[in-house]
Amino acid sequence: MLPAAARLTKSQEFSLVVRRGRRSGRSRLVVHVLRPDQAAGRHRDEAVPEDVANTAPTREPTGSTRVGFVVSKAVGTAVVRHRVTRRLRHLVRDRLPALPAGTLVVVRALPAAADASSRELGADLDAAFRKLRVLPPNGPATGSR
Fold first, then answer.
1. Any one cellular component term from GO for this entry (predicted)?
2. What is the separation of C-alpha 60 from the centre of its chain, rounded to a whole number of angstroms?
3. CA-CA distance, 92 to 79, in Å (whole number)?
4. CA 16 remoteness from chain centre
């Protein structure tokens, strides 16, 4: 289980990460990452809604890394969706210590994730994180657990 401080909970936070962050797609999932230094680089003329302006990336970059999951009905029934979410949550929890502080992550499961094993989902997650350069290219994917 992810601690409450490590979860994205507001729809504005999800929207911010998906719209402003970088993304990496794999066959089973898509990972969106918004690093603290990316959140600060707004255009001068870009309007910022009040509720989005007060989210964590625009505060201090030393905040905790937070993660959210999107598993739509296209993945399967409620039982399948919850299974995929639990697997992804467990995989991301082990990788949290390796991610830079203040990073916001949204993991979106694709329909192929329903039939994937945890090992396959973990490999896709690691590949996406490495492509987005939030994990070292040859370093360990998991944290100290």
1. ribonuclease P complex
2. 19
3. 20
4. 12
Note whether 33 and 131 are within 8 A (CB): no
The count of residues in the chain is: 145
What CA–CA distance (Å, rounded) separates 144 from 117?
Answer: 22
DSSP assignment letter at 49: -
**Structure-block tokens of residue 41:** 């680089």
Q: Which residues of 63-100 are buried (b: 16+ CB within 10 A; e: fewer)?
A: eebbbbbbbeeebbeeebbebbbebbbebbbebbebbe
Dist CA 97 CA 29 (whole Å): 21
Sign for the pseudo-dihedral over CA of 19, 8, 11, 107: positive
Domains, in order of start, for the chain: 4-40+47-131 (3.30.230.10)
**pLDDT tens digit string along 13-37?**
999 999 999 999 999 999 999 998 7
> Which residue has tokens 């945890």?
118
How high is the pLDDT of residue 4? Answer: 87
Strands (E), 9-136: 22-25, 29-34, 66-71, 104-109
